[in-house]
What we know:
Layout: H1 5-11, H2 13-26, H3 37-51, H4 53-56, H5 60-70, H6 81-99, H7 105-121, H8 124-162, H9 166-181, E1 185-191, E2 197-204, H10 219-227, E3 231-233, H11 236-239, H12 243-254, E4 260-268, E5 271-280, H13 288-327, E6 331-336, E7 341-344, H14 346-352, H15 356-359, H16 369-372, H17 375-384, E8 388-394, E9 399-409, E10 415-424, H18 426-447, E11 452-457, E12 462-465, H19 468-473, H20 477-480, H21 491-505, E13 510-517, E14 523-535, E15 538-548, H22 550-596, H23 600-628, E16 637-640, H24 641-662, E17 667-673, E18 678-681, H25 683-699, E19 705-714, E20 717-724, H26 731-736, H27 753-763, E21 767-772, E22 778-785, E23 808-812, H28 816-828, E24 832-836, H29 839-848, E25 853-857, H30 865-875, E26 880-885, H31 893-896, E27 901-904, H32 909-921
Parallel strand pairs: 17-19, 23-24, 23-25, 25-26, 26-27
Antiparallel strand pairs: 1-2, 1-5, 3-4, 4-5, 6-7, 6-10, 8-9, 9-10, 11-12, 11-15, 13-14, 14-15, 16-18, 19-20, 20-22, 21-22
Helix pairs in contact: 2-3, 2-6, 5-7, 6-7, 7-8, 8-9, 8-13, 9-13, 22-23, 22-28, 24-25, 25-27
Amino acid sequence: MGKxxxxxxxxxxxxxxxxxxxxxxxxxxxxxxxxxxxxxxxxKVLDLLIDNTNLVKSGEFSHKFLEITTNNHSQSCIPGLGPxxxxxxxxxxxxxxxxxxxxxxxxxxxxxxxxIDAYLLNDSTLVENLTQSLDNxxxxxxxxxxxxxxxxxxxxxxxxxxxxxxxxxIKTAALELGQVLKVxxxxxxxxxxxxxxxxxxxxxxxxxxxxxxxxLENPLIKKAVEIDQALVIDDTEVELTEPSLSASLQWLKSRxxxxxxxxxxxxxxxxxWGLFYLTQxxxxxxxxxxxxxxxxxxxxxxxxxxxxxxxxxxxxANREWTTTFDAMxxxxxxxxxxxxxxxxxxxxxxxxxxxxxxxxxxxxxDLHPIFRDTQNLLAQVISTGQRKKFEQPYGTPPRDLVITxxxxxxxxxxxxxxxxxxRDVTDIRQVEAEAHTQRQFFASLIENAYDAIYTLDKNGxxxxxxxxxxxxxxxxxxxxxxxxxxxxLPEDQIELARAxxxxxxxxxxxxxxxxxxxxxGSLCLTMVTYSPLFxxxxxTGVLAIARDVTQERRxxxxxxxxxxxxALGQMxxxxxHDFNNVLATILGRTQLLKRMAETEQIRRGLEIIETATLDGxxxxxxxxxxxxxxxxxxxxxSINLNQLISDCLEFTxxxxxxxAHARGINFDVTxxxxxxxxxxxxxxxxxxxxxxxxxxxxxAMPKGGKLHISTYVEASQAxxxxxDSGIGMSEEIKQRIFEPFFTTKGASGTGLxxxxxLSIISHHxxxxxxxxxxxxxxxxxxxxxxxxxxILEVPTTRPIAEPMPEAQMLIVDDEDSVREVLxxxxxIFGHSVVQCASAQAGLQALKEEKFDIIFTDLAMPDMxxxxxxxxxxQKWPTTKIILMTGxxxxxxxxxxxxxxxxxxxxxxxEQLQETLTNLLRS
Length: 922
């Protein structure tokens, strides 16, 4: 590429200077002066010519040249200047003609020659005339340049009009702009993201293509985008002083070898689309015409971009529409106003069973019988502009077709034809029928479900409920609709229910027990499952399934109580057995000692022990009856309830008198006993009932209080009323007070006292009633059948039994104390006795000696009494067998037949004597 004027003149400055000075001196005095006025003037002229090449081409140059050379003096002031300037003209012409710079050097030379002639002729008029002529020539050149610019713009317009290929248009724009402006390099960049510019096309006048920055963050590009106009750099050396651009300009100068550049951003719809990047290797003064041309072509390119993008969008939309049109499963037919087919999709082609080309333009009546049958309807759609839709079966087997015909109209309402859509809904109808059946099935399941099923919104309001909820809670679905579910919960249940509800709203199912309050005020225990209710992937509420477990829980509690009773029965039976063994020893020894008592005082003491032992035996018997859940078989006697109450107060006085005073607590216990308050019953059992009621009253007054017991006859019933001033009971406690194992005493209570008491009173044909209020004490009313006073039994002494025959006796029992006391009793009766501690030892004794009667315990480690009796009956059938048991007699006939008599521990000496007498005399 040729050099510029400035570059040529700068490079040859010394040559020009020497030749100019040589010409000036040779024509004046043939001497080369040193540092005189001529040298200074030549330097000034060369500075003007080299540094202001653009100025030289303008009309201002001649005036500037004359101002410097004349210096407001005559030309004789600087000898040799005229010859020097003549030599300058010749030298510059030869130099420029030889170098052929890329600038418009002929205009430059004419301007210089004009100025030199004006100086030599000393004619300012010549300057003006030549200046005007050259200005006219400049204007002609500018007109020519403008024509070139317009031609370039027209070429781009033709490219836009003749092509929609954006790359071709960009190539044309770059070529035209690069040729007109004669730049070293022109690049068109396109923004591919918020930060990156991609090279779209490049125009170069030289073979070397230098790299250009392609980041929107580059300071030069960023500034051009920010100011939204062309950024012009005439000389990178000059612009290096700007801090924000210095780094980029330094890179351009050192790496890209760029001295001047012009950047023009291209915006589309308010956003950066790309960039024109023009560079020059040498200094260049970018004129306003240059900038205007770049902007004009950028505007044309913007139009082309919009047009190309619009075309691409239309083409894409057309492809999408065509693809969608052909991809639709429904058969679509587009008919004109005469009902001729203009277009059909692939589904329509398959429906007709024909190829595409022959049917386009055909009469719709000839396409298919279904169109022939609907010609009148289609005509109505086209003429009236109203949509028609109908269903018609077709084919064998028949298929259900839904036909929809929509009019096609212009914006002005003119009818152009119709669009017919044929949809085969046979499968859909079948699916709908199956879905309807399934919906009915599931609806029936939900409607008839045993559980209550309901839905709640995010606030906990009921949005739907099945009928079961009314059967369970007494509230109908209509009553609960839009009502908060928490309003039918007891207050102490609301917080727990809300927590479970919130857990489900957060997406996690929750199961928990929940009490509901029925419409009648009663409580219903349920097991509720809360599950999140999803609609379109979002939780919109909660699905709740509630099962009434009230009866199940009650049955479970009863089963648990039964298990407890069974376990207690087993334990009680064992305790009673052991207790009876102890009592048997005590009672036997006491009765033996009574026979040997020497004083009435000793006898009275032994009688008290005997009575207490018999009461203990009665208690053990009741425990056994409780364990077997069978009523007692005790014989009832006439009982004076006044005396019974007095005895009970005496038995319990230690608790409410001595022990209470020791703890600093005072109880005021009073009585008011009526006359002839007599009933029939078991004294021991009734004493247990009233002792238990007295102890309960004392426990209800932890800080002391009053207890009043009264007896009276009311409505032919003997009534005992016990009233305390204690803490009282709530309605809930009163309802459960007689339940087995229910206690208000915590770990210190068993929950059996009142349950057993009620059982005893019920067995006696009586009732127990309660009247209590929190903080106002409690009254128990025990009502028993009334008995007549004249039938009150008076204890009498038993008649002395007749002497019994002496016999050989065998005692088999693993309890030493029981064997020994029984042996002592039999010895008193005059019998011979052998003792054995086990069943095997007893069988061995029977083999060695004959016995009239064998006593055997029921429960023994190696063999029970029934098994021993069975072996004895088989081997020694004449031997009488008496079974002793602390468990109570087994009433099964099979076992009864194995023995001759059964006596329960503890047995008294009279009972033993009577049994032996009967057996030995039989």
